[in-house]
Each structure stands twice: as C-alpha cells, then as structure tokens.
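Today's session is about reading a structure prediction critically. Students often jump straight to the picture, but the first step is always the sequence itself: look for stretches that repeat, for charged clusters, for runs of hydrophobic residues. Only then move on to the predicted structure, which in these notes is written as discrete structure tokens rather than atom positions. Here is the chain we will use throughout the hour.
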Amino acid sequence: MRSILLAAGLFAATSAFAETRIFVVDSMDGYEIDRCLAAGEPCGAHAAAALCRNRQFEKAIEYGKVDPADITSSVSRAKRAKAKNIVAVTCSR
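Below is the predicted structure for this chain, in token form.
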C-alpha cells in the first residue's frame, strides 16, 4: 500500500511540473487547423500535433475553435476581423 501511495505521489508531482502553453492559430498561419475543425475532419489532430512539435513541445493536449471575442491582446483586432476560424492549441512538454 505504501508503494502505491508513493507512486501516486510521484505521478502527481511530475504532472504538476509539466509545461503547457496555448497557441492561437488562424487561417493565415498556414497550418489549416481551422479548416479541419470547421469540416469536422480528423486532420485537425495531426495539424495540432505538428504545430506543437514545430514549437518544441512534445504533444498537443487539446485544440478547438475560439470565439474571436474571447481573445484579448494575443491577436490584433484587424487580424481577428479577417480570420474566419480561430483555433487555440494547448501544447505540453
């Protein structure tokens, strides 16, 4: 029982130190994640994983469409107005 608690504690400690970052992507970035999500195609997962790897992260944890009104200063107003679909990708190391 003691070893199970120790293992659970170590797992919790390592996952607490995992670095994550959210990247905001639109159709102008060239990854086409927005098109995959809009059409409901599975290619969105592959594109999100590629985006994370290109930014030196290990994997994509989640991705999905974002309402442009929910984005603050990370994307300019002009860019938000032009983009049809904006996607947020959460990457982890």
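Discussion point for the tutorial: Helices lie at 2-16, 33-39, 43-54, 77-82.
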